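ok trying again, last paste got cut off:
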Amino acid sequence: MHVLLIEDDALVASGICAGLAVHDYVVDHVASISEARRVLGSLDSDVVILDRGLPDGDGLNLLEEWRDGGVTTPVLVLTARDAVSDRVAGLQGGADDYLVKPFDLDELVARLQALLRRAAGRSHPLIEHGALWLDPVAREVSLHGRPVALSRRELVLLEAFLQAPRSVLSANQLKDSLYGMCEDVESNALNVHIHHLRRKLGSEVIETVRGLGYRLGPPLDACAEMGRS
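nice, full thing came through this time. structure:
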């Protein structure tokens, strides 16, 4: 999953980037409102972490601007402003969650996972797609009850499809889920990862939509598959 981090404290940003990388999040970091405006149109972020006290203004002004413009990406406001009035202003200004500094990284990860779960319309932490299961917390995948070993990028790619099961995802959207802005990406890298997922999980797990991108295939019926085996 791709996270856009808007935070001007370099030490805090470095810690968040390193901590989220352990949980397979791809994080792009900017330090000001102007930078955030510049990159938002070129990135397909799944969630935004937004500081309030930025060098060129209050992050809430940017958030309200986004919401007025129709941007629906989940936003977690991360700030040292802990007064109840500040929390209320953040939530009423369009934030989906509000976390006060200093914070525990495990709590930040849990809140991000809850935001992603809510955005996908799920109530349960496990993601199920027929006989295919993904545990986003444990970072484990199983098919017909048997564990499947995936590389980090294969797992991130599969999660992107499972989080948007009815959507056609473009190559650029999928690349944003897998790589940061500064990473050099080989032209066939995405195709290689999709090939590996199909080999490990079945050729029908990901469908190619010509001219548009890819989408998750229909759920594989566990009982029918077990009957054929």
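cool. Confidence is low (pLDDT under 50) at residues 222-229. Residues 105-119 form the longest helix (15 residues).
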